[in-house]
Amino acid sequence: MSLLGRLFRSQAMVAYTQAMGLYNKGRFSEAIPHFEEALQQLQDSSHPYGELARFYRVEALVRSGLAKEIQGDPSGAESDLREAVKTPTTFPDYHFHLGRLLARRNDFEGALIRLSEALRLNPRYDEALGWLALVLWKMDRVEEAFAELAKLDEGSTDLAIGRPENPRAEDVPSWFEQFETRLNHFRDSANQTQAALIAYAEGEKDQALQHFLGAVEKHPTYPDLRCRLSILLQENGRYGEAIEHLNKSLEINPRYVEAYLQKGITYLRWNSPDQALPPLSEVLRLEPHYQDAVLLKALACIRIYRVKEARQLLNGYLEWLPGEPRAQYLLAGCLALTRNMGSAREVLEQSARHFSLVAALTDLGWWHLRDRKNADALEIARRGLQNHPGDERLRLLEGMAQLGLGTAEAARGILDELANAARREVARIAVQAIVTLDLKEGRIENGLQILESAKARFPSSFQMTYLRGLLLEEEGELETAEQSYHSAASFLSTDPRLLRDLGCVQIRLGKIEEGLKCWADAYLIDPFAFPSAILGDVALVEEL
Question: Where are the TPR repeats (predicted)?
Fold first, then answer.
């Protein structure tokens, strides 16, 4: 559910994100208060994204429960996990974790119920089979315990090694004692996963990849490990290998929703949007209200010019979650691509009105700027600043609107201030605007000094090359701008704004397929980088 994290910006999600960051680094005691804060916020919230709140609440409960178990608070862990499984879910791990904990606490009847549910959701869940067999043996249901043990494949797991053939043999009790010890230590893959997550958080992706490869080699029947591994492989451009692991995950658990979702994302990244559609459709068959799957399927449809189908998906989504900003962005893009510019603006206006989102307000304002409706852009900026005082993006919009209205002195005051903005994109655009203004006013030396200062602020070649591309695009030198953007991409190919701007230039040059590919890549990195507002610049796109 990695993409969901970009949408939910409430106070609850700030706490949740902090908690996950601590949890992934093994700082469980510090994570627990943040989880509890997130849970309290989500329980009390009347936020319209009910499905997202449900997911995050359950996920936070499970993570909090696991953290409490590790910290030696089994009662607190059981309370959180019991609350988590009250919500219907297709994730077998939630039931497994509770069943395993109950077994350790000698609540065998409760453990039996939860482990059976985990196996209903994933019949090839070896660890759940092992714990179920152990629970049945402790309940003196020896024949049933052996029936479960028989389902374990000795070729794929070391849990079944040395199991006795005769349930009445003398060595059965001692074997089950050893079996329980193996079960309690079997989750060493979790330690490797933990090490991988820590390495990933610290930017050591190669090391994280090796940890996951080791975990999968040791436990090849764990679909979750293969799914996590596939995400790292796809980020390293190893798409074919990622698909292989996802297919294996789905052989093990045909109802593994996350694996279908990641398969769709991998095909989108692999420039195979047509192949992304079947797995994304399967996600929606299993989970009809899975937000990311709807949005990604719409994106895949846009990539293969099925804009009508994308609009139908997004319109249906917005009937369910009115004003949801990611869907609004994609829908505005669809409308603009089919030259329904008025409707596209209306969609963004609704998003800005209902949620007062800075992203929607600035997008709408920039659209007005491109239409030379500078007074409207200024009104939007000032309206937004009432709710978000001091926001650099809205201040930039205000400065650019002043510039468009010809009030150069007021514009320069704002832009000079923003040349040192905390947001690099804001600073880049402010520098570009100041230099452009200096060129128009003949203040060449001042413009050169500003560019020299920009080198200190943006020391990397990427930043300066990108800035050069922005300046060239502003001057209408599209081919040279494209070259500059490509040069910038050679330093950092995953910057969503760069991909967005490169896509716009390519479409303006008539390279429609290449431009749409850049936009799709930008969306996968950051949903709010999808260029709904700047599509007004590309009316040359034919009806799709």
Answer: 92-125, 223-256, 257-290
- Radius of gyration for the alpha carbons in the chain, expressed in angstroms and rounded: 27
**Residues 455, 496, 23: CA angle, nearest 5 degrees:** 100
Q: What angle do CA 321, 327, 331 make, to 5 degrees?
A: 125
Give 59-64 contacts, CB < 8 A, sequence gap 24+: 59/1, 60/16, 60/19, 60/35, 62/93, 62/94, 62/97, 63/19, 63/20, 63/23, 63/31, 63/35, 64/19, 64/31, 64/32, 64/35, 64/36, 64/39
Question: Residue 386: inside a domain, yes or no?
Answer: yes
Last residue of a domain, one of 288, 321, 355: 355
In a domain, 473, yes or no: no
Q: Per residue in 287-300, pLDDT tens?
A: 887 888 999 999 99
Do 48 and 178 have their domain in common? yes
| Total-model pTM | 0.58
**What token pair was written down for 468?**
């050069």
The Cα 509–Cα 3 span in angstroms is 31
Are the beta carbons of 500 and 520 closer than 8 angstroms?
A: no
Alpha-carbon torsion (7, 10, 14, 20), positive or negative? negative
Evaluate whether residue 99 is within a structural domain: yes
CA pair distance 365, 380, nearest whole angstrom: 6
Query: Do residues 366 and 238 share a domain?
Result: no
Question: With contact defined as beta carbons under 8 Å apart, do 385 and 391 qualify?
Answer: yes
Query: Rounded to an integer, what distance in angstroms lies between the CA atom of residue 194 and that of residue 118?
Result: 22
* Domain total in the chain: 5
> Which tens digit of pLDDT belongs to each residue from 48-94?
344 555 666 777 788 788 878 877 889 999 999 998 898 777 788 88
Same domain for 244 and 285?
yes
Boundary-marking domain end, from 459, 474, 509: 459
Q: Do 324 and 418 reside in the same domain of the chain?
A: no
Pair 39, 13 in one domain: yes
Looking at the fold, whether 276 and 374 belong to one and the same domain comes out as no
Residue-wise pLDDT tens digits, 402-442: 988 989 889 999 998 988 888 877 888 888 788 778 767 77
Give the residue from 344, 347, 345 showing the smallest Cα distance to 365. Answer: 345
- What is the reported pLDDT for 158? 62
* Contact criterion met (CB below 8 Å) for 14 and 254: no
Q: How far apart are CA 194 and CA 191, in angstroms?
A: 5
Torsion angle, CA of 90/92/94/98, rounded to 10 degrees? 140
CB atoms within 10 A of CB 452: 9
